[in-house]
């Protein structure tokens, strides 16, 4: 079955949080066998205040009590009439992206410095200097946007 062979944890819950679907990847990620989770509340995985819908990186609690960082994509399960009948989540362990951090730090410095120059805080600029710094700033902003898209758990 496709659900059981999926490489990400798939959990289906009713509106009150009762688990109705728990695949093998969920067993591996969270440490609970399906037989132990189906019919139980999924809240045992979630620290207080965890978001429920959307895409986010958050913390979850494994069966052994260890906290793990996971990427979660949660969406409503709709019935035939279009009403929300439950919640479906896919999740996987997050690997911190140190390279993104190492690139982001100096790039933010470049963005800040060009912004300071463009505001004229270091003195007046001629039209060509303003144009060239604008190109540097636009390129840096584009690069930062791409770095921010690097997989940090949620690609």
Describe this entry's structure for a reader:
With 155 residues, this protein is α+β, with helices and mostly antiparallel strands. The chain has two domains: 2-93, 2-Layer Sandwich (Beta-Lactamase), CATH 3.30.450; 98-148. Helix content is 37%, strand content 26%. It has helices at residues 2-5, 24-30, 34-37, 98-118, 127-148, and strands spanning 9-14, 19-22, 54-61, 67-78, 84-93. Strands 2-1-5-4-3 form a five-stranded antiparallel beta sheet. A hairpin with a 4-residue loop joins strand 1 (9-14) and strand 2. Helix 4 (98-118) runs antiparallel to helix 5 (127-148). The protein is elongated, with a radius of gyration of 22 Å. The model has no long low-confidence stretch (mean pLDDT 86).
């Amino acid at each position: 079955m496709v659900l059981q062979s999926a490489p990400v944890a798939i959990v289906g819950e009713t509106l009150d949080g009762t688990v109705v679907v728990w695949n093998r990847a969920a067993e591996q990620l969270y440490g609970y066998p399906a037989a132990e989770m189906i019919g139980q509340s999924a809240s045992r995985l979630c620290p207080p205040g965890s978001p429920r819908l959307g895409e986010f990186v958050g913390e979850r609690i494994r069966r052994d009590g260890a906290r793990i960082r996971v990427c979660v994509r949660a969406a409503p399960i709709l019935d035939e009439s279009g009403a929300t009948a439950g919640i479906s989540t896919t999740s996987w362990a997050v690997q911190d992206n140190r390279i993104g951090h190492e690139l982001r730090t100096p790039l933010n410095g470049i963005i800040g410095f060009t912004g300071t120059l463009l505001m004229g805080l270091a003195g007046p600029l001629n039209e060509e200097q303003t144009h060239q710094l604008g190109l540097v700033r636009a390129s840096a902003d584009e690069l930062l946007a791409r770095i921010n898209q690097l997989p940090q758990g949620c690609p």
